[in-house]
Each structure stands twice: as C-alpha cells, then as structure tokens.
Amino acid sequence: MDRFELAELIKTACIVTGWSYVELANRIGIEPQRITAYATCIKTARNPDQIAQHILKVLSDETKRKQKTA
User: Fold this and answer.
1) CA distance 18 to 29
2) Of 67, 66, 41, 15, which is closest to residue 55 (Cα–Cα)?
3) 54-70, pLDDT tens digit by residue?
4) Cα angle 37, 54, 6; round to 5
5) Averaged confidence pLDDT in the chain
6) How many domains does the chain fold into?
7) Which of 47, 42, 16 is nearest to 30 (CA)?
8) Are 8 and 50 in contact (CB under 8 A)?
9) C-alpha radius of gyration, the chain, whole number
10) Residue 20 gets which letter from DSSP?
11) Mean local confidence (pLDDT), 18-27
12) pLDDT (tens digit, 9 = 90+) per residue, 23-35?
C-alpha cells in the first residue's frame, strides 16, 4: 500500500463511521497529528500496511458492535 492508498483509506473510514481524524487515530493508537499528515499525504507513513490493518480491524469491530445493538 502506498501513501495515497493509505490516505484514501483514512478518509473513507472517517466518512463511513462519521469519526474525525482524531477519533480514528485514538481508536487505532497513533497520534492525531500523524494520521492527519498521512491523510493529506504530507508525511509518508512508516508501515502503511500495518496502519491499514489497524484501521480495517477497528472498522470491523465497530460494524460488529453496531450489528449487536441494532
């Protein structure tokens, strides 16, 4: 995954969940400044695949949680 794909994943995750970059960063355990930099392609993420995996896991967990409460 390159930095542009990671940026799109971050933006999409925020749109789908309604979360801000800060909330997404907190849920995956990185500093909010870093996720904003990655989302705007200002900074290249170290281990972008690992960050993407964390985002996808958080989204999966959130989907399961919403299904249980629905």
Assistant:
1) 18
2) 15
3) 999 999 998 888 888 86
4) 40
5) 89
6) 1
7) 47
8) no
9) 12
10) -
11) 94
12) 999 999 999 998 8
- What pLDDT shows up at residue 18? 93
- Residue 56 CA to residue 33 CA, distance in Å, equals 20
Give me the percent of the chain exceeding a pLDDT of 70: 99
- What's CA 60's distance to the chain center, in Å? 12
Q: What is the pLDDT of residue 54?
A: 92
Amino acid at 42: I
User: Please, where are the H alpha helices in 1-70?
Assistant: 3-17, 21-28, 32-39, 48-69
Q: Which range of residues forms the domain containing residue 44?
A: 3-69
CATH code, 28: 1.10.260
35 close to 25: Cβ distance less than 8 angstroms: yes
C-alpha–C-alpha distance, residues 39 and 36, integer Å: 5
